[in-house]
């Protein structure tokens, strides 16, 4: 696998994982009881971007290492027993 290909796969995985992780641990202004005038009640009360980026990077790195291991192992879709037509 070439380096540009690996970076492209990691980049795509990172963005997908980011959107999967975004809702975890976020409390709305309504839940906190402190709605800032001019904002919606469902807006995050305290959005911690660095924490989200850190978790996203950690999870993506683990998934990417699994992806690399799977590519290096030589396992293909033909090796997975999938149900076929009857």
TrEMBL record:
Keyword Transmembrane helix assigned: yes
Transmembrane segments: 7-26, 52-70
Keywords assigned by UniProt, alphabetized: Membrane, Transmembrane, Transmembrane helix
The protein's name in its UniProt record: DUF1467 family protein
